[in-house]
Amino acid sequence: MTKTIRVSSLPRIMSCHASKNEVEIEINEDSDAASMGTAVHRVLELAVKNEDEYISQEAINEVAADQKVDDIEELGILSHVGFKAWKTNIEPHINIHTLEVETALSFHVDDWTVTGHPDLMGVTKDGNTLMVVDWKTSRVESDFSSQLKAYGYAMLPMYPDVKEVMLVTVYVRSQVIDVVKNTRHEIEVEYYNELSNVLKSERYNPSNSNCMFCPRLNCEAKKELAHSSLLMLSNIGENVTAQQYAEVYEKIKFVEKIAEKAKKVMKEHIKEHGALSTGDGMEVAVTEEVRTSMNFEKALPSIAAMLIPDEFMPNQGSLLEALIPVIKISKSKIHGLIKDRSEKGMKGKDVSKFNEMLEGADALYETTVEKMVLRKEQN
User: Fold this and answer.
1) Count H helices, E strands: the chain?
2) Closest by alpha carbon to 132, among 90, 72, 171?
3) pLDDT for 34-84, tens place per residue?
4) Could you say which of 3.90.320.10, 3.40.50.620, 1.20.1440.170, 3.30.465.10 is the CATH number of the domain covering 3-200?
C-alpha cells in the first residue's frame, strides 16, 4: 500500500523519522500565521507569473480578501520584500522560459509517494543549473534544504543537461537569502538514498522544533517532552543561567503549540458531539461571535456629523484635525496607490517625490520595538 507525505514535512521527518507515520486525528491547522504565509505566496506567484514590474495595492487587497487576511499592511510589506528578492537576486539569472511557479510535483521512494508544490523553479541562463526557490515567511530561520532537495529531485528528469541544483531560501521577514549548491549526483543518488533510509526508519527524535509542528498526538516521546517542559517552566526561578533562559523560550513556544492543538481537538469534538460538562455546573461549548467592522469611507459622514460642529463642516481642515487621533496611515498602502495612478515609467519617480515631500514636512518618524525571535547565531 502506497503512503503519501508532503514535501513541506520533510525537514521534520528527516530529523524525527517516526513523525512520518499516519496521524490519529486530522486537525485543522489554519492560523493567522499560516494564512499570512499562504497570502504572501499567492501575491508573489501572481506577480511572477504575470511578469509584473511591481506589486499593485489592488492585487494585495484581492489576495487579502480571498485568504481572509486582516493585516493588509503586513501582507504588503512581506510581499514587496519577497518580490524585491525575485527582481534583484533571482530573475536576472534565470531563463524565464523554463520558469515553473507553484507546480504540482510528485515522485516515489519505495512504498512512499512524496508530493509538493515548489514556489519557483527554473534553469539558469547558461543551462547548467536548476534553481529551486522557496519563500519563507516564518519568524524562525530553520534548515529547509531537505524540502528544496526534494523539489530538485522531482524536476531533474525534465532537464538532462543540468549539472547542479541551486537551493535558494528567501527568509522574507529577516530579508536573508540562503543559497546552497548541490551536484546532480548529490541530489539524484545521495539525497534519494538518505530519504529512502529515513522512510524505512522508526527512530524518534523528540525536540521542541520537531514536536511543535508534528501532527501526531499519541506519541510517548512527545508526551514526555511536554511533561518535562511543563516541569521546567513551573520551576523557573531567580537563579537562572543565560542558557536556561534560551531553553525556557523554546519550551514556552512548544507548550503554547501543544495547548493550541489540544484546543483544536476539543473544538472539533464539541462541534461533533456537543458541549462538554465540567462536573461543577459549567460546560465547555463552541459559540459563534459576530464582530462588526467599519468601512471608513462610508462611515465618514456619520463620523463628521458627530465630531465636527455644524459651523465648521465646510472647513475640510477642521474635519481632518478632528479625525487625526483615530486615523492610522499606511505608508506602503499610499505607495501602492501612487504607483497605481502613475503613468508608465514614472512609478519609482513619483514614489521618490512623495517620500521627499514627507521628509520636507517632517512627517516621518521611527519607532523601535523589542521582540524575542529564534534565528541563526550571528558571527
Assistant:
1) 14, 10
2) 90
3) 888 899 999 999 888 888 888 888 888 889 888 888 888 889 889 999 999
4) 3.90.320.10
Grid coordinates representing 118 are 515548489
What single-letter amino acid sits at 317? G
What's the length of the chain? 379
- Contacts of residue 317, defined as CB under 8 A and 6 or more positions apart, other chains included, come to none
Residue intervals in the chain for CATH 3.90.320.10: 3-200
Q: How far is CA 283 from the centre of its chain?
A: 35
Give start and end residues of each alpha helix (H) in 119-241: 145-155, 184-185, 192-200, 208-212, 220-234
User: In this structure, how many other beta carbons lie within 10 angstroms of the beta carbon of residue 242?
Assistant: 7
The pLDDT mean for the chain works out to 81
Cell matching residue 175: 530579508
Q: For 115-152, write each residue's pLDDT tens digit.
A: 999 999 999 999 999 999 999 988 776 788 999 999 99
